[in-house]
Write a structure and sequence with these properties.
Low-confidence stretches: 1-10
Mean pLDDT: 93
Distance between the termini: 33 Å
Largest sheet: 6 strands, mixed
Shape: globular
CATH architecture: Alpha-Beta Complex
Oligomer: single chain
Helix content: 25-40%
Radius of gyration: 16 Å
Number of domains: 1
Number of helices: 11
């Protein structure tokens, strides 16, 4: 259910442009939605800043679970092309965002409603769990484009897939589908499009009924 964005001062900047990022709050669960489907949810610097602020605000609110998802048929195509040409592709904002997600002391889930590409990998790799629809595709063309991946992404990817498969994606330009991503360990479950958020929210129920301290304590026990 969509609820109104919070009115706390820490979220004022996030909701200045509610057409590109939506935040839903329900009983200790926040769902952050990329809402730029006409641009394949490509990310601008402003959106990255808003996402960083949203994760910080969620932690201040002591949420127990956080879901990241997108509108339309693509989770995110990565950097907005115009802004990438102007320098966004090498901005520290990408690493700032993935670092905040990785440090979040709650259950974090990437509910991938479609293809995950380029810099958008960082936020998904930083999550605890990743669900994807069958139509999702995965590629990170840094070799082809002449960029380095975000600093933390190769290690996080290799921890999920193993070093060789991480090199296939980052160095060999491999484009893999959802089933192969599941087989490799890059994602944890394939969900039908109409069940993606249902299943993601179901995984949050136990955390929602726990205290924030208890959720954080269990998360700290898992490397």
């Amino acid at each position: 259910m969509r609820v109104a964005p919070v009115s706390a001062c820490s979220l004022n900047a996030i909701t200045e442009d509610p057409t590109v990022i939506h935040i839903d709050q329900t009983d200790g669960l926040w769902t952050i939605t990329l809402a730029r489907p006409d641009k394949a949810n490509s990310l601008t610097a402003r959106m990255l800043e808003q996402l960083c602020q949203a994760v910080d605000a969620a932690m201040q609110a002591e949420v127990r679970a956080l879901i990241l998802t997108g509108e339309g048929r693509v989770f995110s195509a990565g950097a907005d092309l115009d802004e990438a040409r102007a320098g966004l592709a090498t901005s520290p904002l990408w690493e700032d965002l993935s670092g905040r997600i990785a440090r979040a002391e709650c259950l974090t889930i990437a509910a991938l409603n479609g293809t995950l590409a380029g810099g958008a990998f960082g936020m998904a790799l930083a999550c605890d769990l990743r669900l994807a629809v069958p139509e999702a595709r995965f590629f990170y063309p840094v070799m082809k484009l002449g960029f380095l991946p975000q600093p933390s992404d190769p290690a996080r990817m290799a921890a999920l897939t193993g070093p060789a498969r991480a090199k296939m994606i980052l160095m060999g330009g491999a484009r893999i589908d959802a089933q192969e991503a599941l087989n490799w360990g890059l994602i944890d479950r394939i969900s039908a499009p109409d069940q993606l958020l249902v299943e993601a929210r179901a995984l949050c129920v136990d955390a929602q009924h726990a205290t924030a301290a208890h959720v954080a304590a269990i998360k700290r026990l898992i490397p």
